[in-house]
């Protein structure tokens, strides 16, 4: 399976400059390739990733700074262009007036990557990649798996701090789960992030923390200062660091929840999120936050990230790693059924607790989770029955 490990790196001053210059070169390549696609698109020609790679040698000859870099870096950037164009074509299908992908300014270009890592060595906490920079010191807070095969590197700069994300392909042993035979139903929601069928509830990060207050203050200060001033640039960096701290806090919480669930249960039954309707997170805009503060892109992203989906992704790979599995069931009528007596409930969906005439009184999430588990187990039993039935019919012949 593929796993991604992300480590902070501590570049020297020269390496810092080198990484920044590569980032800049890749941004130029992205914008040039996008321009190329755009002109072709307007003439009615659909270029592909392969067309882009074919014209890459000529581009590298014309822009000599690129020739020192490995090809894998340019390929990574061209893949980004290809993805952006694919998404654009999807948008066009839904809306004929959809906007063309953005050209990237410095503020909107944070990463470059290397596809197909050759000549890359990780030893003693140092990363060496041919043609990029010499030995880069990483803060490796956990070891890579012993049999890991490096597949892709992505370097990202956020708030003056560089990170490297290492995608590895490794074998997950067919080990048994620590608690074989254990199963739970899991209900994912916005208000209550995760509810289990055994009654445990997991909250999201509290909305108001020291970090989120700092972020709000940073945005307020940013909204007040003059455009294009040096102070604004400085405050922008402060806001960037504050955003990053909030993002880290929130993702840590998701990792903790998903690890707790996958360690305790072998089989985890969830609803099919593609079929489930979530209420859209409401963005409140208060006048005290400064004009336009909450509406800015990054802040909106921090607050309105689709959390249940992200949590489920983490649960999937952690379950696979721990020897467990995730079972997906149809979400229809899950919320409208009482877990104890099976009768349909008439309550509105936003009631906190599920209270039934039969005497059941549990949090709504728990009721859903128990129903999800029951549905998962009956589907499993039906599948087993079909298999047994097949074996029997074969035997009778
Ligand atoms: Zn009931």
Structure description:
- By secondary structure, the protein is α+β, with helices and mostly antiparallel strands.
- The protein folds into 2 domains: 2-169, no CATH class; 183-375, Nucleotidyltransferase, domain 5.
- The protein is 44% helix and 19% strand.
- It has 9 helices and 14 strands.
- The protein has helices at residues 13-42, 49-54, 56-62, 71-94, 210-224, 230-264, 297-304, 307-322, 364-396, and strands spanning 2-10, 111-115, 120-123, 126-129, 133-138, 149-158, 161-169, 183-188, 194-196, 201-202, 267-271, 325-329, 353-355, 361-363.
- The strands form 3 sheets. It has a 7-stranded antiparallel β-sheet. A 5-stranded mixed β-sheet has the order 10-9-8-11-12. The protein has a two-stranded antiparallel ribbon with strand order 13-14.
- Strand 13 and strand 14 form a beta hairpin.
- The longest helix is centred in the middle third of the chain and has 35 residues, at 230-264.
- The model is unreliable at 284-302 (pLDDT under 50).
- The chain binds zinc ion.
């Amino acid at each position: 399976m593929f796993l991604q490990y992300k480590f902070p790196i501590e570049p020297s001053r020269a390496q810092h400059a080198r990484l920044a210059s590569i980032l800049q070169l890749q941004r130029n390549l992205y914008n040039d390739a996008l321009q190329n696609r755009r002109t072709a698109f307007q003439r009615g020609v659909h270029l592909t990733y392969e067309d882009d790679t074919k014209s890459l040698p000529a581009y590298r000859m014309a822009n000599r700074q690129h020739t020192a870099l490995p090809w894998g870096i340019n390929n990574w950037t061209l893949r980004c262009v290809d993805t952006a164009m694919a998404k654009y074509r999807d948008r066009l299908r839904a809306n004929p007036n959809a906007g063309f992908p953005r050209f990237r300014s410095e503020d909107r270009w944070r990463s470059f990557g290397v596809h197909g890592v050759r000549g890359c060595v990780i030893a003693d906490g140092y990363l060496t990649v041919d043609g990029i920079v010499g030995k880069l010191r990483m803060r490796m807070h956990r070891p890579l798996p012993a049999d890991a095969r490096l597949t892709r590197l992505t370097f990202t700069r956020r708030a003056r701090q560089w990170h490297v994300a290492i995608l590895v392909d490794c074998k997950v042993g067919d080990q048994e789960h620590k608690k074989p035979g254990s199963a739970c139903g899991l209900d994912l929601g916005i208000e209550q992030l995760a509810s289990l069928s055994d009654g445990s509830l997991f909250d999201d990060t509290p909305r108001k923390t020291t970090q989120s207050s700092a972020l709000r203050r940073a945005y307020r200060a940013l909204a007040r200062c003059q455009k294009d001033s040096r102070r604004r640039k400085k405050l922008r960096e402060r806001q960037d660091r504050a955003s990053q701290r909030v993002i880290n806090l929130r993702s840590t919480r998701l990792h903790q929840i998903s690890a707790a669930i996958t360690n305790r249960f072998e089989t985890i039954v969830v609803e099919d999120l593609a079929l489930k309707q979530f209420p859209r997170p409401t963005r409140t805009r208060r006048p005290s936050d400064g004009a336009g503060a909450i509406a800015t892109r990054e802040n909106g992203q921090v607050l309105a990230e689709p959390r249940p989906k992200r949590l489920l992704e983490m649960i999937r790979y952690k379950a696979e790693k721990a020897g467990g599995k995730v079972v997906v069931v149809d979400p229809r009528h899950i919320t409208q059924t009482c877990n104890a007596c099976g009768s349909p409930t008439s309550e509105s969906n936003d009631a906190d607790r599920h209270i039934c005439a039969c005497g059941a009184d549990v949090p709504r999430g728990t009721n859903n989770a128990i129903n999800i588990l029951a549905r998962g187990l009956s589907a499993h039993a039906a599948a087993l029955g079909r298999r047994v039935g097949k074996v029997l019919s074969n035997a009778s012949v």
